[in-house]
Write a structure and sequence with these properties.
about 30% helix, globular
Length: about 160
């Protein structure tokens, strides 16, 4: 039996919601530019490339270990909600983009995960929340820098 939990972070971005959402939905170029390279090592769009119907493969470096996963992209509310669902069913990450004014957006990244029960699960949840909190803070900073035109980040590479 597992224990569901979530990790989330939000930030205000000084760019219109449509611009921010377009960046997030473009897995061929723009999304690769907002992923923090200290955590993400590569990203490939295997199918599609923009929004719903896209399938991605992602490489990460987590706590010194390389890991990769595949995810399918859906848009339950196009222009507002983008969801990455891990094809192994371990994690679902939602990007919510809401207008916060005529030229500002509130961006929330939220992942739903599950852990073991007991002490091991408590430790797993603690470590994961701490790590993903850092990842999401870095990603939200890069989203803001890129969407606001303050930093033209190079994209993380495609896989070798």
């Amino acid at each position: 039996m597992s224990v569901p939990y979530d990790v989330r972070a939000s930030a205000i971005v000084r760019a219109p919601a449509a611009r921010v959402y377009a960046i997030l939905a473009d897995y061929r170029d723009d999304h690769r530019r907002i992923l923090p390279p200290q955590y993400f090592t590569w990203l490939d769009a295997e199918q599609g490339g923009v929004g719903a119907g896209t399938v991605i493969r992602v490489g990460m470096r987590v706590m010194g270990r390389a890991r990769s996963f595949r995810a399918a992209i859906t848009e339950p509310e196009p222009g507002r909600v983008l969801v990455e669902t891990d094809l192994e069913g371990r994690v679902e990450t939602t990007f919510l983009v809401e207008p916060a004014g005529p030229s500002e957006s509130r961006v929330t990244i939220r992942s739903v995960l599950s852990s073991r029960r007991g002490v091991a699960g408590v430790l797993e949840r603690f470590a994961t929340k701490k790590l993903l909190g850092r990842v999401y803070a870095a990603e939200l900073t890069r989203i803001a820098e890129y969407a606001e035109g303050r930093q033209a980040h190079a994209p993380i590479p495609h896989s070798a």
